Amino acid sequence: MFTTPRLIVIALGAALNFSIGTIVYLVKLPIYLDSIGTILTALLLAPNRKAAFFCAWAAGWMSLAVSGLVNPFLPWFAATDVAIALVTALVTLRAADIFRARPLRAVPFAASVLVCGAVTGVVAAIVSAPVVVYLFGGVTGSGSAFIVAFFLKTGQQLMSAALLSGLTADPIDKILQVLFAALLYRATPGDLLVMLRKA
Amino acid sequence: MTPNGAIAVAVMMIALLLSGPGPGGVAILLVLGLAFAVIEVRSASLIALRRAATVVLPLAAFMVLVWVGIVGRAPSEIAADMPGTRAAALLHVALICGRLFFIVAVIQLVVLRFAHLTPLQFIRALSLPAGAKRLLVLTLSLIETLRHAIDRAHVALIAAGTLTRRFSLRNVIHSWRLVQAVWLSAVTIALGRMRDKWPVENTLDLLDRALENSNRRLFAGNDRIWLPITMGAAAVILLADLFPGAS
Question: Considering its fold, how many domains does chain A have in total?
């Protein structure tokens, strides 16, 4: 399962999550972009769903362990990373061939990105909402806190405000993440894919 | 004290804090954290407090903006459908940020307790499976590789006139090229290492040997003092929560 090339890709995915996620957190954008490495790790291991899930999970948790020193909120979303790895392995991997097709087939590519991103976003929002409410009182350090504030102002309870905020921001965020991961997957040299697929 | 012991103590303290103890429980945790800082970390504790403040203060300002400035009510008041006050919202932010400050301070105390160790020595001393240790080292190494790749690609794209040094619309439009260049650079480096460099230099075997911990005991030294004390504190806090009238 965890061959040396796969360990390298897990580490690369974790490093990518850490680098992009940290920049986005520091500039307070209302999106996260901290799971591109997790999604990309799974895509690189397509069509092996089991390997894709476990390697993406490992990449997600490894980046949480490292990022925790910069952003103390992130490690509490460990369950969200497992959910993202699972959805990517079960849903997004079906579109791996479309993402890598040459020449690019624009309509299936865009449709796959939208569907996979939206599904990942909805699942991530549902898994994250209880953490946001019970551990952080509704507001984490990310820019999505403004959306929680908006829903609270409209009279929503804390749990539903956090869930609605997640359902508003997460699908957009995850569509962007799936798009970036798909584009990086397209750009990845075939040599690496061959090494990864050797179990 | 071993890194395993320090991490176990820190995890227990953080878990106890998140269990929502009463004022007595919070006081016990503060005394325990203070004792750990004074005995194990000594003067470097001030650095831990400063780092925790550096992380939490901007966050506190952000939360004050959101809760006090925009929402203007505490969650309990929203739940009870009361008009609410900004003072209650401020108290809510203070409680959340106080909790977060404690968590970050405890993590920093553990980091500073082993500040004399290099990351490789720290990972070596941990009781983790060999694969997990290898993965941690590779991740830290690749984060450095990515940082260098970002610097190189950034300079190259500025020289090519694709990006600019300052914030500009061109940067927003073409920043994707930077991400792609960084990824390709990192993948090429990783491929080169895996295919040619590491097999020739026998790097992974040497790394596994370097990470092998000769001390097979999970806990040693002061761990045997701190772990029972922390577990005792946990028992007192949890019992006080279960039987609030007993005290």
Answer: 1
Model confidence over A104-143: pLDDT tens digits? 999 999 999 999 999 999 999 999 988 888 777 777 767 7
Q: Which of B120, B104, A41 is nearest to B112 (CA)?
A: B104
Nearest-angstrom CA–CA distance, A86 and A92: 10
- Whether A8 sits inside 8 A of B188 (CB atoms) is no
A104 interfacial to chain B (CB closer than 8 Å): no
Structural tokens at position A54 = 């476990």
Domain of residue A32, CATH code: 1.10.1760
The number of beta carbons lying within 10 Å of the beta carbon of residue A184 is 24
Backbone angles phi, psi at B128, to 5 degrees: -125, 160
Please state the pTM of the whole predicted model: 0.82
Structural domain span for residue A86:
4-197
Q: Which of residues 208-247 of B touch A (CB under 8 A)?
A: none
Determine whether the interchain pair B92/A66 forms a contact, defined as Cβ–Cβ distance below 8 Å: no
CA–CA dist B166, B195 (Å, integer): 39
Q: Phi/psi class of residue B168: alpha, beta or left (left: φ > 0; alpha: ψ in -120 to 50)?
A: beta
Q: Which of A152, A161, A11, A50 is nearest to B73 (CA)?
A: A152
Cα(B2)–Cα(B11) distance, rounded to whole angstroms? Answer: 14
The answer to whether B107 faces chain A, any CB pair under 8 Å, is yes
- Per-residue model confidence as pLDDT tens for chain B (247 residues): 889 999 999 999 999 998 888 889 999 999 999 999 999 999 999 999 999 999 889 888 988 988 898 888 888 888 777 888 899 989 988 998 898 899 989 999 999 999 999 988 888 888 888 888 888 998 888 888 888 888 888 889 889 998 888 777 887 788 788 888 888 998 999 999 988 999 999 998 999 888 887 667 788 888 999 999 999 999 999 888 777 765 5
CB B163 within 8 A of CB B175: yes
pLDDT on residue A85: 96
What pLDDT score does A21 carry? 66
Which of B95, B111, B191 is facing A189, going by the closest CB pair?
B191
Residues of A in contact with B142 (CB under 8 A): 8, 11-12, 14-15
Per the CB < 8 A criterion, the answer to whether B239 and B19 are in contact is no
Which residue among B73, B96, B204 places its CB closest to the CB of A136?
B96
CB contact under 8 A, A149 and B70: yes
* Helix locations, chain B, DSSP H: 3-18, 23-36, 45-63, 75-79, 86-113, 119-125, 130-159, 169-192, 198-201, 203-211, 223-242
Cβ–Cβ below 8 Å for A62 and B70? no
